[in-house]
């Protein structure tokens, strides 16, 4: 064996001790940094991929249907020199109309007072603004689902003294409108899907999942039928009988569908 007293062998324990101290200090530094500062990230590379809706197509549907509800606005305008006389006469006419309607089978809840107004009529020509008459206006809105009664209701009201029939509006009841809307929505969606597939095929694109659906609220809804030829002011039932037909109502719907592209 070599002599342990050589210079190289004399410094060997010191080198081992220095290496151990350096290793220990390094471990302590890592522990302290991790504990008091923040964890040392193992990976700092991250990739995020987002897909956005880049393809949209619209579809439409139009359903023609017959309305199942009608609203009639009718009333009386009475002008008299005495305000109480004007009120009395107008009330007599309205009460007669109301009674006749209920006698015809119209439910009380389907007869609603729409307007009741009283105002003076002035004479401005004399310069004194003198009240010459009083006008009393009363109007009712009547709702019907039995269209066979429609013409009779108008004739009955005018015979009782009504001199105003301001509008006859055919509508869809809430239940029928809901049914038509569901049908129109389903047809519009199918049309939009078909249009999207055809356009994507022609453009050489592949479609992913549906990411958005938008309904065009400006188009949807039944278009009311307004009858302008209702009998007006025919008192006593004179003249030809009223003949009003509901016709048809068009319900239009538009839907836009957006897709992811692959």
Helix/strand class:
alpha+beta
Number of strands: 9
Query: Ranges with pLDDT <50 over ≥5 residues?
Result: 29-34, 42-49, 218-238
Name given to the CATH architecture of the domain at 64-177 and 218-257: 2-Layer Sandwich
Report the CATH superfamily of the domain at 64-177 and 218-257: Protein of unknown function (DUF541), domain 2
The average pLDDT score comes to 78
Computed Rg: 43 Å
Work out the helicity level.
25-40%
How are the strands ordered across the major sheet? 3-4-2-5-8
Major β-sheet annotation: 5 strands, antiparallel
Strand fraction: 25-35%
Number of helices: 5
- The third-level CATH topology of the domain at 64-177 and 218-257 is Alpha-Beta Plaits
Any overview of this molecule?
The chain is of the alpha+beta class and 262 residues long. The protein has helices at residues 7-10, 12-36, 83-103, 150-160, 174-203, and strands at residues 53-65, 69-80, 111-123, 130-144, 164-171, 207-215, 221-222, 225-227, 249-261. It has a domain at 64-177 and 218-257: Protein of unknown function (DUF541), domain 2 (Alpha-Beta Plaits). Strands 3-4-2-5-8 form a five-stranded antiparallel β-sheet. Strands 1, 6, 7 and 9 form a four-stranded antiparallel β-sheet that branches. Strand 3 and strand 4 (130-144) form a beta hairpin.
